[in-house]
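INFO  loader      accepted 1 record
INFO  loader      residues=248
INFO  predictor   begin
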Amino acid sequence: MLRHYIDKDRPFKDVPAYVFVLMMVALALQLTWHSLQEPVAARAEDLPHPMSTRAYVMSSFGEPIATSKILNLWLQAFDNQPGVSIPLHSLDYGVVIEWLDTILELDPQGHYPMLVAARVYGSVSHREKQRQMMDYIFYKFNENPDKHWRWLAHAVITAKHELRDMPLALKYADALVQKATGENVPYWAKDMKIIVLEDMGEVEAAKVLVGGLIASGEITDPYELRFLENKIRVLEEKLTKTRQGVDK
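INFO  predictor   done
INFO  writer      dumping tokens
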């Protein structure tokens, strides 16, 4: 039986020439069509705007803190999409800030959004984007100084060492002194203004500030007092050298 079917198979040479030609034309057309198609490539999606905080609360069945943590992870992983990696500085920072605000509203006691603002989005190699994120931190600090003081202290360092903007660093450092007055705010955060003034060459102003802190009697920590006393001696030495240079 099997031999019967094999014997009935037609050999290739019996195929009509026009059928063979049609097959070759069809193959050529298929290859040409494929060659004209654009290569399939992964495309980055734009960061969408967040929904309202109320919408997230309703969809989370009353678990806004858990939702905030999920959104934290989703936002931080957004730059790694299937088949493509998006540079952080290519994101729309206005939309990023909307997400950070939404996450903070879902978990008002959380610190993670401010952490990524300072150390992830604020560390990109793009001056304007860095400045935008530092200004956001400054804005949030003004809303709640005693909660967000550590992130503004980070902004002082970023403005000073990365943005090379000493007036901006001084603005942030001065805000720490003026507004972060809670007991949980360490003296080193307030001392940042002294360091910035010194680095700006405003030695006399730094000395006056240190002297005022010592004379106020508010500082009782012996380590802090020792630091300020040493700092005022260093500043006095710098002032003396400056004056001697002018006299010469």
